[in-house]
Amino acid sequence: MTDRFTIGSLHDSASSYRLPVGDGSAIIILAIFIIVVVSIPKFDLAGALAFAAIPLLLFTAAPVQLAPILKRLVIVSPFIAFMAAGNLFLDRATALTIASVSITGGMISATVIVLKTLLTLSTLLWLMAVMPFHRFGTALRSLGVPEVFVTQLLLVYRYSFLLAEEAGMMQKARDLRSFDGHGKGPVVTAKLIGSLLIRTTARAERIYMAMNARGFRTALAEQRPALALKANDLAAVAIAGTLFGLIRYLF
Amino acid sequence: MHMSDALLSPVVGGTFWAVSAGMIGWSARKTAADSDGSKTVLMGVLGAFVFAAQMINFTIPGTGSSGHIGGGLLLAVLLGPWRAFITLASVLVIQALFFADGGLLALGCNIFNMAFIPAFIAWPFIYRPIAGSGDSPVRLATASIAAATLGLLAGAFSVVLQTTMSGISDLPFNTFMLFMLPIHAAIGITEGVLTWGVLAFIRSTEPGLLQTTSEIRAPKTGFVTASLFVAALAIGGTLSWFASSNPDGLEWSIAKVTGKEELASPDEHAHELLAGLQEQAAILPDYDFRHTDNQATSPNSPVNVGTSFSGIAGSLMVLLLSGAAGLLFRNRRNNSEAATQS
Asked: Do A48 and A98 share a structural domain?
């Protein structure tokens, strides 16, 4: 498995970037964008291409690092490539002929699948690159997501990097003691994961005691209250929705 | 096994989003009722543990390839269904947001396939009845392997159904099933063996960790059946609504008023004149190129060659404009920031 924690943090480049719209409305706009892109018919290459204008605008306007985003897109591509290849091989009927070169329906629908993937995922990763996760949590609260789930997300995010480091050290220690692949099978690995689990629960107890001492009861909401969506946030959503609808209609 | 945005139709994606969001809301209510802050922290840290555990690879005997634990069933055993569902859903959200696994619209499908199924089907109906108190190593092994394998197979079956219902992929249902099920059966057995190994290790070293879930009541069969029934009803209802052969509201209204489903173009001199002017002035008249011999289209083709070309040309123009607008926006922002600092 590729070590996903070593491919660079999305937040390195633009963590303090201030969006021209509120965080809650940015999430809604992203959701509308994704739904509109996904609704593009399977042979509509021009329609999918037109929507590339949105990520292009975002990536040129905000200074985010491209390398971590591109690496993530490459890592997730095998399944999409397989599904696109399925269309390529199964739909061989000639859709159009240009200068005696036959272009099949599968070629077009496969390209649309890949394009849609790049559009939706790159936009999502862009938003995560410019919006620190604590702001994302506050935005989710303003959108009415249950506090239990928001607290859960913030805690998972906070501790995933910490535990990943610990798991990396355990794996390195095992690999250093392994010769000719011995000790890397499922039996030893299960014990290693079990040890990590025991360490994790012990860590959870320490964290709870420390948080409890600082006033934590069952949720993190007291520290970061939700901000309700304002009229200009709703206006931004309406404008963006109209723009996406217009692009979808025109192309 | 993450479902992807690009393979989903908005109807299927949206419906599973609604079902999964409803389940998160319900599970959040169930866990909020138990106001134990230590469990809140435990859930958060165990969610992070899943990421960490996935980093530890092992060699699959006889194949030379490597794999890692998924962790869905393990969390269900450690936390019980409601808390495991919330924890797994949060892991899937983080995976979608930061590692681009699946995408935002596909999140609903992924939460259903990889959180609902292990927490509300595999654990209560397969693992728990077989494992019992967990004292018997044979029963623990059988329960782990059976629950992990059947849970993963159910998830894979769900992916095939969601893809087929969306109609974006050309892979036929049977072919896709033949491809997905054997692979996921093998992954499921491996996951089961690893889960059993971890649980056996925990039982021998920290048995207290496993005692908490033995007191948790399993979700009632009626609740799970009702959830699945609601999902099926929502999907079936929404799909049939979209696939309706009856005229839509606008067509119905027009038909009522005019007796026809579509309005005829106005046959007026001014309209003809304007249309003629538009034809003369437009770069891409009628959003189409005139067909030439070099650009033939199959009679059954779903692709209109002219519309495609002019559409692509138009799209490229929009791309250029948006790139330029983005650069202008960035320069303006940099200038205003520099002015503020000075």
From this structure: yes
